[in-house]
Amino acid sequence: MDSKKKEVIVTVHNTEELEAVDRNVFRYTAEPVVKKYIEDFCDEDTGEVVSMDRNEFIFEKGRELSSDDFSALLFNLQCEYIKEVRLSNIQRQGNLVSGMRFRLWNVKVDGARKLKMLLRADNALLAYEVAKDYIELNYKGTFTIEGIKTFSDCIVIEPEKDDEKRNISADRWWYIVEVESMQQDPGEEPVSLFTSHFVVFAENVESAKVIIDRWVAEEKAKRGETANNVILRTNSASVISCSVVVPAEFCFAYTKKDEEEE
To answer: Where does the chain show beta strands of DSSP type E?
Structure first.
């Protein structure tokens, strides 16, 4: 497919507009098509008729529409089961979804100020926006964002509010710690179960271990687990290189804004 081809999207709201569309050009769905209607059913216990809103998936995004598909769209528009259909001249089949909430990201910045930023975001696009906004508000001069990477497989243990207010200081740092969970039965050698990576805000490696142990114990308690023969072994720990940490509240505001827009 020619990636330089300009995409054109048309939105149709009724059968007349759909009939006027050039089907040879605008033959792909630009977004999923969902049929919405109200269905009545009888409650077997009370005999009461209850109405429920129903959503029925018709076509996925990027579907190449056949003559039968166009007929189905005409029928559903006529019955007002769908309010509009967006059609494109380009087939896009991938769907961008929000990332795993709530990751830590390292952002490298070059320009008038060279920065290594640590921030929170759902995905790389949002991390870029958070970094750009924070730099524009707090630093003078031109800059470029050279790189963005995440700690995708890490469990982030959020610091206490009083701790994070200190930001990067002489006695607190962000650490990434590899921890191996091991089962040790009496008289037996420890057996490895799985390995996890934690990101914690701590004074040193020993205090990071204490924070992780406490977090794991609390999570077990929430799940009602009482396995006392599982021990934690720290395989590695290192300070995450960064010169500025974007406050959590600043980052959270972007996630709330993103949710409101959805």
So the answer is: 9-12, 28-29, 33-42, 49-59, 85-88, 103-111, 115-121, 143-150, 154-156, 173-183, 191-202, 230-239, 244-245
pTM score, whole prediction: 0.56
Q: Are residues 51 and 132 in the same domain?
A: no
Tell me, what's the pLDDT at 166? 47
Torsion angle defined by CA atoms of residues 213, 217, 218 and 222, in that order, rounded to the nearest 10 degrees: 150
- 34 and 158 both lie in a single domain: no
> In terms of domains, do 49 and 134 share one?
no
Tokens 């009083």 correspond to 162
pLDDT beneath 50, residues of the chain: 1, 164-168, 262
Q: What are phi and psi of 241, to 5 degrees?
A: -70, 115
Secondary element (H or E) of residue 160: none
- Say what the pLDDT of residue 73 is: 95
Three-state secondary structure readout of 132-150: HHHHHHHCCCCEEEEEEEE
User: HSE (CB half, 13 Å, CA atoms) of 219?
Assistant: 8
152 with 225, same domain: the answer is: yes
Instruction: Name 154's Cβ contacts closer than 8 Å, sequence gap at least 6.
Output: 103, 104, 176, 197, 198, 199
Name the residue range of residue 16's domain: 9-88
Full 3-state SS string of 43-70:
CCCCCCEEEEEEEEEEECCCCECCHHHH
Q: Would you say residue 255 lies in a domain? A: no
Look at residue 164 in the predicted model and tell me its pLDDT: 47
How many structural domains comprise the chain? 2
Distance CA 48, CA 101 (A): 42
Residues 107 and 137 in one domain: yes
Q: Which two tokens stand for residue 243?
A: 């010169």
Does residue 198 lie in a domain region?
yes
Give the chain's end-to-end CA distance (angstroms, integer): 30
